[in-house]
Structure formats: structure tokens, C-alpha cells
Amino acid sequence: MGTADGDSTPVGTRKRAARPxxxxxxxxxxxxxxxxxxxxxxxxxxxxxxxxxxxxxxxxAMRELGYRPNSAARALKRGEFRTLGVxxxxxxxxxxxxxxxxxxxxxxxxxxxxxxxxxxxPTQDEVNGAFSxxxxxxxxxxxxxxxxxxxxxxxxxxxxxxxxVVADSDAGDRYTVVDTDQVGGARDAVRHxxxxxxxxxxxxAGPEDSFAAQRRAHAWRTTLTEAxxxxxxxxxxxxxxxSGYRAGLRLADEQDCTAVFAANDQMALGLLRALxxxxxxxxxxxxxxxxxxxxxxxxxxxxxxxxxxxFAEVGRLCVEGVLSKxxxxxxxxxxxxxxxxxxxRLVLRDSTAPPPxxx
Amino acid sequence: MGTADGDSTPVGTRKRAARPxxxxxxxxxxxxxxxxxxxxxxxxxxxxxxxxxxxxxxxxAMRELGYRPNSAARALKRGEFRTLGVxxxxxxxxxxxxxxxxxxxxxxxxxxxxxxxxxxxPTQDEVNGAFSxxxxxxxxxxxxxxxxxxxxxxxxxxxxxxxxVVADSDAGDRYTVVDTDQVGGARDAVRHxxxxxxxxxxxxAGPEDSFAAQRRAHAWRTTLTEAxxxxxxxxxxxxxxxSGYRAGLRLADEQDCTAVFAANDQMALGLLRALxxxxxxxxxxxxxxxxxxxxxxxxxxxxxxxxxxxFAEVGRLCVEGVLSKxxxxxxxxxxxxxxxxxxxRLVLRDSTAPPPxxx
DNA sequence: CCAGGGCATGTTTACGTAAACATTGCGAGC
DNA sequence: GCTCGCAATGTTTACGTAAACATGCCCTGG
Lengths: 359, 359
Known about the structure:
Two copies of one chain form a homodimer. Chain A is α/β, with parallel strands linked by helices.
């Protein structure tokens, strides 16, 4: 070296022209402030051992250059991204959205960002794709909001060393799971209707391939049987209000149907419409209980009695769970397991009443 | 050096024990496959100039070690994160959610991940906080889904060099904005009701501090005036079904009110309930038009005529806009501006009919 | 009055990757 | 038969940060 003329400054500027990269680096700030880059680092991270005067100088230099730390370099050095990945299906269901929101909020409080991995179509291929993309993603851990059966075959491609918590699913034997207490909620709904004097309770279930729907339906059946009642035939919907409407048209013709437990509020909404159209009054002729307690449920016609889910708590626990996994290096050996249940709450409104025979 | 005994292998393992870092690095793969790390890099990125045989060996080594590329190092080297940041308020409104979903999907198609920056409370402080956190975030560009007035004072802390697209707002003079054609939608709603024969149209508006609400209200007033009608007093809600209900109780007492344009579907839902309770039939006595076309709107009592918003398109355009900004280095000089409007569509259902006087 | 102990700051190095440049080896053309 | 050229692979280096270690200085205590 030394043959060419330039030797001190041009190095930093030569190639920089080709790529007008976003910002100033620590070295730039250090140069302007007349300190070493390490001092800039200390200021940037709020470490002690820096004079107030020096700190001010560095801060001024940062402002002048519009310095923002390069998080790639930071992550590379620290070995963590401070980011959580969330894999979810299209955000079509209110529950997923509310859970996601709670996750994002909790994560932010812990200084973590949340990266979304949407899976457009819930096919096995898509899920696998998401998981392999995840492999290259800058995340420290993953929260999956997804029915477990779609997760199964994807397990293989789950990179080792990536901690996972699953929400809204079962399979607590293989993953750490956080979920609403589906069984308790369904039981409360059915018992409430029985306590009002109804002989039995019909069930408008969610789609067959949903474990949440399965568990609600199962708890409905069990609760009835335990109470010595005969479970009527199960009516199947697909979570949508439209499917609730179609089911409702059928239920309206069942003259001995005085109480319906709908597996979610949307289907309950459609059900209410169908019953109204067929002239069956709610709650005078038929009582209806929903599940979820979406914001609009209080404004249905009539306001819907429903099972409140605490999505915020589910989200919070997901974050807590996944972070504790990260922080304990090898505390829980394989993947960690166990299910944490979040309790539900029966919200009484105007869609339930004693059956006609009791008045 | 050379004084201590170990010199070749222990280097890689010594400190590693303290931090059981997640995975194997390129060097590890290279060692196992008996090639250089550069060759591993070539395989990893699908570059040419590698024998099929070598490629297979490397792939095998990758699988064996469970290698996943370190995206921090990759981002550091490449100078980009392939990630978009999305700043949004609590995901309470359906519109934001659907937009976010579309953004995530579009971004994924372009090979970009999406990082969520939730702002819990829409105060100026919180927004500023989000923007400064954003400064340290691993994102190449930002999409803001937010009312613009909250963005104003935050501008200062927006790091230079970070491209921004704003959805669901105005201020196309300062930012690149993608938004639903609020004016066109509101006009269509009002004109539809006038065409049915109503003398005038009442408006159940959204909160005062929402520009979307403002524009819908303004367009409502303008359309009425242009048609030579007298705009009735404006009724104010807050987007919630509950506020729609309260407003509806008041509107039900206005005997000359035969047509209402609600600024969103949730408020329309509450309105329907209030009108029903007061014995005013929809659409026979009062016609109602909503805005948004949420999934449940078709299941309201009666099914709601409403203005459909194409949130998917809004999201798609946001991603497209922000990516084109990134890719054109300094094509659009300052911040870029201009508003892209996404058209709406009137969806006819059963909540509108000619006024009683016409039958 | 000088040694020793902090404290403020500087220097070196490594994180994992990929661009740029360097080096092999082998086949074709003269 | 020898060289030129290209294809396959290896080596060096830099990206921006922060831990670990090194330095210099001032102040205190014997």
C-alpha cells in the first residue's frame, strides 16, 4: 500500500457513491463527535461510563447525521433479533385478530417486535412454505395461531432451536399450547340454558376440521349427557354468519328446539336472522347463546348472551411463554409441552330466557 | 500466540459453550461438506458455478447440521432487511385488519416480511414512541395505517431515508397516500337513497377526529346540496355499534327521517337495533345504508345495503407503492406525494326501499 | 510525594455472510 | 504439445456493532 495517492478518507466514500445507503454508521458519528465508535456505542445503548459532556456531543452528532443504529449489525453481534414471528391463517376470524393484537402489544412491552407470516391458503403446502420461509426469517421464536392438524406434517421443516408456542389449538403433548378453556366455556353455555328450564340444548357447531369447534361440540354433548339429557342432532356450520343463517332456517322448523348454543357469535348472528324471518321470537320462543363475545354482540337483535373469550390474555401468555423459553437456554429439553387454559366468562344479555312451557 | 496449547479447533468451541447459539454457520457446513464457505454461500443462494455433485454434498451437510442462514448477517451484508414495517392503531377496526392482511400477503409475494408496530393508545406520545422504536427496527420501509393528524407531530422523528406510504388518511400533499374513495362511496350511498324517492338523507357520522369520517360526512352534505336537498342535522357516533344504537334511539323519534346513511356497518348494526326496538321497520319505514361491507353485513336484520371497500386492493397498492420507492433510489425526491384512490362499490341488500310516502 | 485504584475513553476483535478477487485444473485450438 | 480460456472452487475482505481488553489520567491515601 502507499503506491496510490489517497489513503485516509477516500476509502469510506469510494464505493459508497454506488450505493447511497441509508444512514450514517457509528464510525461516522464517532468521527464527527471526535470520539471513538465504542463511545458512540455506549451512548447508543445507555451504558454508564460516559461523561455527560461527551454524551451530549455524541447525541448532537447523532442528530446531525440522522444516525439510526443498524439493527442487522446489532442483531448479528448480539445473537438475537428481539423479534417474534407469528404464523397465522388469513386474519378472517376475530379471535385470531384479537390474539395477534395482544401478542403485538405484549411483545412491544417486552421490547420485542412482531413479524407476521401470513398463510394465504390453509393447505399443507402453504404451511410448509411458511415454515421454511421462517427458517430464513429474523426471528428468535415463533407463535403459531393455527389448528394443529395443519401443523403436523410441517413439524419436519421447523428449524431446530426455534422455540414455538401454539395458540388456539390442542396437542399440548407436543407443543406448549395456550388456549381458551373451550370446554369450560361450552359447559357454562349449556348449563345456563338448562338452568333456565330448557329440556335440552341444540348445538350449532363450527367446521369439522377445527379443534376448537370439536371441543366445544364435545363439551356440549358431555354436559348434556351428564345432566341426563338427550343431545339433539348436531347442526354444522362453518363459522360464518351465512352458514348460521342456513342452519337457522332448518332449526326454525324444529318445533321442540327452544335453546341453541352457537359455537361462535357470527353464526349466532345468522341464526338470529333466520329465526326472526321464520317468526320465532328470541328469546321468547328460542334462546340463543354464542361464543367469543365480539364487540358487536351487544348490538345484535336481541343483544346476545355469549361466552366471553379473553383473547388479550391468550396473547399475553403466548408471549410470556415463548420469551421464557428463549431466556431459559435448555431448561425445558425437547420442545416443551403443556397446555395453559385461559378461563371464559358467561356474559348475560337478552337472547336467553326460560322456555315457553315455563311461562 | 502459540504459548497456550490449543490452536486450531478449540477456538470455535470455547466461548460457544457459554452461549449455545442457535445454529450452525456457513463455516460449519463448509467444514462438514469439505468445501469453502463461499461455495456454501453459492449453494445457499442458488448461484451458478457449482457442480451438481458439490451441491448435493453441501445440501446434505446443511440438512445434517440443520443449517439456517443467519438473516442478520445476510441483512448486514446486503444492506436490506426485506422487511416492511406497519404502524397501526389497535386493530379494532375491521378495515385496518383487512388492510393489514392484504399488506402481509402482498409483501410475502414480493419476498418481504411484515413487522407490526402496534400503537396501543392513539396519543401523540405513543405515536412518537412507535416512530422512534421504528428507527431501530429492521425495516426497509414503512406503511402507516393511521389518521394523519396523529402523524403530524411525529414527522420530526421519522428517520430520514425511510420511505413511507400512508393508508387510510389524507395529506397526499406530504406523503404518498393510498385510500378508499371515501367521497365516491358516500356519494353513491346518498344518491342511491335519493333515487329511491327519499326527500333527504340523514347521516350517522364517525368520530370528529377521523378524516375518513370527515370526508364521508362532507361528501354526504355536498351530494345533498347539489341535489337541492336540505341536509338534516348530523348525528355523531364513534364507529361502535353501541354508539350507533344510541344515535338510533334519537333518530327513531324523528318522524320525517326515512333514510339514514351510516358511516360504517357497525354503527348501522346498532342503528338497526334501535329502530327495531322503537318499532320503526327497516326498510319499510326507514332505509339504512352502511359503509365497509363487513362479512356480517349480509346477515344483519335485515341484510344491510352498504358501500363495499376493497381493502385488499388498498393493501396491495401500499406494498406496491412502498416497494417502488425503495427500488427507485432517488427517483422521487423529498418524500414523494400523491393520493391513489381505490373505488368503492354499492352493494344492494334489503335495508333500503322507497319511503312510505311513495307506496 | 508517589503508588494504586478507579473512571473515562480508545483499540482490537469477532459475529456470519457475500462481493471481489485469486487460484486451480482441464479441455480445445493452433 | 503447449498455451489460452473458462469453469469450479478457494481466499480475502468489509458490512456495523459491541464485548473484551488496553490505555491514560486524575484523585486519594499512606
